[in-house]
Specification:
Elements lengths: L1 H24 L2 E9 L6 H20 L3 E3 L2 E11 L4 H13 L6 E2 L4 H13 L4 E3 L15 E3 L9 H13 L8 E6 L3 H17 L2 E7 L8 H10 L3 E5 L1 H14 L6 E4 L7 H5 L7 E4 L8 E2 L3 E2 H11 L10 H20 L4 H9 L2 E4 L2 E4 L12 E6 L2 E6 L14
Length: 408
């Protein structure tokens, strides 16, 4: 009887799966456009984002598609390579809307590229859900058709300043005695990080002793590190996307820079643990998402289940962390699915209004948009590389491990 029961359960589950796949195979298409960096300096993260989009599209198809009334739809994305160039991105957005007739857009990679494309989508009143442009300057333009699932960039390394303040107190020093060094790329995302860190440092009365722009090609920050050695800050902040992160970790190791706390962006995308091994230990890395968080939803399951499923679909990620850029790209597609189903329509303005009213818990975290279009429901996370592993150390309510401090 037990065997018969198990067999019946298996048959029922298999029948349901085939039924869902059969229905999804017969669904109509919703075509979405995306100009994204597949070559150029943003290519690494552009590919991560594209893979995140495609994984979500596949998951939605496997689960019966997007249901609008008594019909179902599958997403299909038309991709064009913007070559990491803003003017090309804007031109391609025009092409997608005017020639390919797309009515909905997924965002490009980086704040700069999003800033180039957003005026185009706004002009044509095309809803764009983006996952990779975090600059807060995107959300003070009055755009009505731009929505971002990620936390804005001024929040990325704010917790590093708070941690530095905590450590000053623990060691019996005045918080205002903490000295901060900042080295960032001259792009909207990194400049916002600089602004956020500077503002937080000022709140604590900390002194910013170095405030420098990274070289344009991001391949050499030795001149800045010479100043770091001389001025001995307590906290060093670096933001330069993947290439800047790799340069920072490599040269800080090569020059034996001794700073108690170093926080950078794009650690995983740059694969600093794989490239530099123990030299990457104790760096603090900002992240939008971690597979250890307790977020979950009906489509992807938990954050850990998302990571497992994505790695099964993309084996090239099997030996490394799934980048948060990939996770948030999947979340952007999920927002579209949710909005279409709540709108009950393919009308782009009704879909836009449904996106604006999003209140969704996902494997990536909570998503709810302000009137300006930025996500106001999800905090940033700060992790530290400890023995080659990324462990959450801030905010404290999410921390899984104690901070290693000082780092040297």
């Amino acid at each position: 009887m037990k065997k018969l029961s198990m067999l019946s359960t298996l048959i029922a589950a298999t029948t349901l799966l085939f039924s869902q796949n059969s229905l999804a195979a017969d669904c109509d298409e919703i075509v979405i456009g995306s100009a994204i960096s597949l070559t150029g300096k943003y290519a690494t993260n552009g590919v991560h984002a594209k893979n995140g989009y495609e994984y979500a599209i596949t998951k939605i198809k496997e689960n019966g598609g997007v249901k609008i009334g008594d019909k179902c739809y599958n997403f299909r994305v038309i991709y064009y390579d913007d070559e990491s160039k803003g003017d090309r991105g804007a031109t391609l957005a025009e092409r997608l809307i005017s020639q390919d007739k797309v009515q909905y857009m997924l965002g490009p990679y980086s704040s700069g590229m999003t800033k180039a494309i957003a005026p185009v989508t706004e002009k044509y009143k095309i809803p764009m859900v983006e996952a990779e442009g975090a600059s807060r300057s995107l959300f003070n333009k009055g755009y009505k058709y731009l929505f971002a699932v990620l936390s804005t960039s001024e929040q990325y390394l704010a917790s590093a300043v708070s941690l530095a303040a905590e450590k000053a107190k623990e060691s019996g020093r005045s918080v205002s005695s903490t000295r901060v060094a900042i080295a960032v790329e001259n792009d909207p995302f990194s400049l916002d990080i600089r602004a956020g860190v500077s503002e937080d440092a000022a709140k604590y009365g900390m002194k910013v002793v170095i405030d420098e722009k990274l070289p344009r090609d991001l391949s050499d920050m030795s001149a800045i590190l010479t100043k770091v050695k001389l001025l001995k800050p307590d906290l060093l902040i670096v933001s330069g996307h993947s290439k800047g992160a790799a340069t920072a970790v490599r040269q800080i190791g090569e020059q034996n820079i001794k700073v108690p706390m170093i926080a950078i962006t794009h650690c995983e995308a740059a694969d600093v643990t794989g490239k530099f091994g123990v030299a990457a230990n104790d760096f603090l890395c900002s992240t939008q998402w971690s597979e250890t968080l307790s977020y979950k939803d009906k489509l992807f399951g938990t954050a850990a289940q998302y990571e497992k499923g994505f790695k099964a679909a993309y084996p090239e990620y099997a030996e490394k962390k799934v980048p948060y850029q990939t996770a948030q790209a999947s979340a952007a597609v999920y927002v579209f699915k949710d909005a279409f189903e709540r709108a009950g329509s393919l009308d782009k303005d009704k879909v836009r209004d449904a996106i604006a009213e999003t209140d969704l818990m996902t494997f990536y975290g909570a998503i709810k948009f302000s009137a300006a279009g930025n996500n106001i429901a999800k905090p940033m996370v700060l992790r530290q590389i400890q023995n080659g592993k990324y462990n959450v150390v801030a905010p404290s309510e999410f921390a899984s491990h104690k901070l290693n401090w000082p780092r040297n």
